[in-house]
Write a structure and sequence with these properties.
Distance between the termini: 27 Å
Largest sheet: 5 strands, mixed
Number of strands: 9
Radius of gyration: 14 Å
Order of helices and strands: EHHEEEHEEHEHEE
Strand content: 25-35%
Length: 160
């Protein structure tokens, strides 16, 4: 297993994994990933197993305390010295799920955010994943204002 940050060369692989993990209304597009990679490639964590991308996490950094839908589309909102590491997506290809890849990757993201002096991390998830993220110390703040992809999202926060 190897974890590393992204480069623009990862664009196609990221797009393919995202499409395998999220319905079209929720998945980031190739162009959204291109814009994100141009601004904050070090806030993509990629996990490879036997040379294959099996899982990744990405998101911008901001001083805003809550994750807004505009953040998904506008990479210019990223602030490298921001207080909060936002998590836009936790992706694991279907055939590699339930093997601990995402948890391992999230532990690395939490470690890196702490080492970078952030106040913590924020993510949104569906109700079925609340307990999963709680195992890492995230606390639910209730239903998010996000309407991304037409789904109901819960905002969760991990404070350091």
């Amino acid at each position: 297993m190897m974890i590393r940050t992204a480069t623009t060369a990862d664009l196609e692989a990221l797009t393919q994994v995202e499409a395998a993990c999220f319905p079209p209304a929720e998945a980031a597009t190739r162009e959204e990933f291109r814009a994100r990679l141009a601004v904050y490639p070090d806030h993509f964590w990629l996990l490879y197993d036997r040379g294959r991308l099996v899982s990744f996490v990405n998101g911008m950094v901001t001083d805003e305390a809550d994750l807004r839908d505009e953040m998904y589309q506008d990479a210019s909102l990223h602030r490298e010295d921001g207080a909060w590491q936002m998590i836009f997506g936790v992706n694991t290809i279907p055939e590699a799920r339930r093997q601990g890849y995402a948890m391992e990757l999230l532990r690395r993201v939490v470690h890196d955010a702490r080492a970078q002096g952030r106040e913590g991390l924020v993510l949104t998830c569906k109700a079925a994943l609340l307990d999963y993220y709680a195992r890492l110390g995230f606390v639910s703040e209730g239903v998010s204002r996000s309407v991304h992809g037409g789904a109901v999202w819960y905002q969760m926060r991990l404070r350091f």
